[in-house]
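1st attempt posting a full record on here, be nice pls
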Amino acid sequence: MKIYAGISGWGVLVFWLIAVILTSGDSNVLQAISFVVDVIEFVIWCLPSGYINKQGWWSPNYDNDVEVPSLRNE
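the predicted structure (as tokens):
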């Protein structure tokens, strides 16, 4: 079951665990890395639903494209 665009429950769990580990310390470096991870997670969540194809590669899913007939009189 997909929760977000291409992220499964395992992906959400991994991002959450990384965020918990990185924010557990008081180091500014760890907090900066955590911020970058949060931004990457947000970008992945905002991807369109068909952006990740069946093989899981980071490319548009052209398999679901609908062919629109031409408006020209050809």
